[in-house]
Design a protein that fits this description.
Order of helices and strands: HHHHHHH
Largest sheet: none
Helix content: over 70%
Strand content: under 5%
Shape: globular
Number of strands: 0
Length: 141
């Protein structure tokens, strides 16, 4: 291997930082879910109406809204991410199957593309854990 390729290989291998990668995933998920949850909490009457039109009980609108908001906060700070990830994954699974599935995969057509990514990212956090850049890791020390 020539010298330039060795330098590139060394650089790329130096970027392998799984805990930092998990922090990035947690921040991305957290920001998305905080925004989504806060938007729902701010207009909860509309959310309750929408849930009713889908055949869900009104209390589920509150559960989902606050679940997204608090789950997003948990992701960012890295606290109880396993529980938060499961809750968020369930919310995304239901959203995918009850709202977006009928529109197909494409996000541009209202499909499940985006919620599938959120679902799988939440499950990745559940299976991998919060990582060392988290409150969970600080408290375990």
């Amino acid at each position: 291997m020539n010298q330039q390729l060795k330098k590139i290989d060394t650089f790329v291998n130096g970027l392998h930082k799984p805990d930092l990668g998990m922090l990035f995933i947690r921040i991305a998920l957290g920001l998305v879910f905080i925004h989504s949850g806060w938007s729902k909490v701010q207009d909860i009457d509309l959310v309750v109406t929408g849930f009713g039109q889908l055949g869900f009980a009104p209390w589920l609108a509150y559960l989902v809204s606050y679940g997204e908001l608090l789950g997003g906060i948990a992701m960012i700070v890295g606290l109880l991410v396993g529980y938060a990830g499961i809750i968020l994954a369930i919310i995304m699974l239901v959203a995918m199957l009850k709202v977006h599935w009928i529109n197909g995969f494409s996000l541009a057509k209202g499909g499940y593309e985006y919620v599938l990514v959120l679902l799988l990212a939440a499950l990745a956090v559940v299976t991998l854990g919060a990582g060392k850049y988290s409150l969970e890791a600080k408290w375990k020390r």
